[in-house]
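Need tokens for this chain, all 137 residues.
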Amino acid sequence: MIFKNLIMKYSFDKILISPKKLKFFVRTINNINIIDAYFFLLNISSFKKAKILLNKIKLIIANLKLKAFLYYIKEIKVTKSIVLIRSQPRAKGRAFKIQRKYSYLTIIVSQYQNSKIKNIAIKNLERFFTIYFNTNY
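Here are the structure tokens for all 137 residues:
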């Protein structure tokens, strides 16, 4: 069988978190299955940055529907976006600068090519359905 290597690119802009803070969580979910990334971020979802990434992964899973188990996160890029500068008044007419840094998030998703890896992905899908829907797929 000939499989085409399907690559999809999802880009999200103006996320209100500095790129330095977001890169910490991005490193952990690079090159893994989308559903595994979802479960990992669900476990550490007490952090604001993890919640934002979790919502983006949910959007990708919803877009791929039942084929989500065949895809993995090939690459994630976090780049600097705009910086809003605000000022906080201080004593004696001075002002203190507040920088609100935004970031761009680009997620590149690719399809598995190896059949052994696809079998592992199918087992992950079965685990996903048994946990959330209490049924076997």
